[in-house]
Amino acid sequence: MIFLRVEFKAVAAFLIAAAGCVLWLSQEESLQSHVKEFAMERQNTKQQMTDDRSQMVTLKRSDGEVKIDLEEYLKGVVGSEMTPSFEMEALKAQAVAARTFAASRDYCVDDSTSSQVYLDDSQLKAAWKGNYDANKERIEEAVDATRGEIMVYEGEPITAFFFASSAGKTANSEEYYSSTLPYLRSVESPWDAEVDDDYVSTFSCTKEELAQALSLGQAAEVESVSHYESGYVKDVIINGITFSGRSIRETLQLRSSCFSVASQGDMITFTVSGFGHGVGMSQEGAQGMALQGYTYDEILKHYYSGIQLSDVYIS
User: Fold this and answer.
1) Paired strand residues for 225
2) Element (H, E) at 65
3) pLDDT at 22 (0 to 100)
4) Is the dihedral of CA 300, 303, 308, 312 positive or negative?
5) Who contacts 35 (Cβ-Cβ below 8 Å, separation ≥6)?
6) Do the beta carbons of residue 290 and residue 88 sit within 8 Å?
């Protein structure tokens, strides 16, 4: 009988301990469940607060100055600056670049190429005509999918230059502008020639016409052309005077400063590759990368060296 009592007590003790363990596990699972629910609710609340935040842009136009929400402003920029039928990842990259550019200007811009081209909804309807609904939907998707995202370097918004098409490489910032910026370095861009239908263009003029355009006293004789490693023209010596590649491009309204020069008789022909200043992101290059499966952040990190992505709505 004593043995049975001891055995019964042992079993009872085991059952009590097991029940306690089950109760503890149940309470622990309940606690973990509550913690998870709280974390999710907190994250959802934080996301909702972020989604509810806004940033106003001061937009200077020919008819006055207007205040417009940043994300709405971007829909007018992306729709103006990039072909709406481009791949979605290319459009997203353009949205982030345009948002970053606005942030770098403290959200005070104009609607011209000196800042970023912006067309309002009525202007887009006139430009797109029957394609308006489809184009607007794609642009809105690209902007909404990247809401708030900008590129930063050492914590500050970068000057996110972009242009239409490179000549196989992009240019270092100091090759076209005065400042040397660490995130605007020359990178390979072989995709442009594959997707840009107007990759090569030509411009011809007489030697007298060139002399007149450059304010020279006699018929122009091109003596030499030097290039940067990127392929863009550094200097052109004409009649003993040195002109920068940029000044030649802008004076003659060439599509880019990546060109070669040939003389035949009284005629001079400039053969030009690409379109734009060549600094920052190539839009045709972004399209080519997107077609090969690159994501928008991979596109941005290719064209802008050493950048990180940040969110303007999260402090």
Assistant:
1) 236
2) strand 64-69
3) 40
4) negative
5) none
6) yes
> Interhelix angle for 296-303 vs 283-291, to 10°?
140
Q: For residue 172, what is the DSSP state?
A: P
Chain center to CA of 173: 16
Please tell me the distance from the alpha carbon of residue 211 to that of residue 156, in angstroms, as a whole number: 45
Count of CB atoms situated within 10 Å of the CB of 10:
10
pLDDT digits (tens, 9 = 90+) for 242-299: 999 999 999 999 999 999 999 999 999 999 999 999 999 999 999 999 999 999 999 9
pLDDT for 53: 83
Q: Which tokens is 229 given?
A: 């490693």
Neighbours of 132 (CB within 10 A): 16
Positions of E strands within 240-315: 241-244, 259-264, 267-273, 281-282, 308-311
* CB-count burial class (<10 Å; 0-12, 13-18, 19+) for 301: middle
Nearest to 285 by CA among 75, 79, 97, 145: 97
Q: CA separation (Å) from 294 to 79, 88, 288, 300, 305?
A: 21, 11, 9, 10, 16
Residues (pLDDT < 50) of the chain are: 1-25, 28, 31, 35, 38-40, 42-49
Q: What is the pLDDT of residue 123?
A: 95
The bridge status of strand 149-153 relative to strand 308-311 is antiparallel
What CA–CA distance (Å, rounded) separates 92 from 143? 7
Residues 216/207, Cβ–Cβ less than 8 Å = no
8 Å CB contact between 213 and 205 = yes
Q: What pLDDT score does 32 carry?
A: 54
Quick check: 112 and 105 in contact, CB under 8 A?
A: no
Position 11 scores a pLDDT of: 41
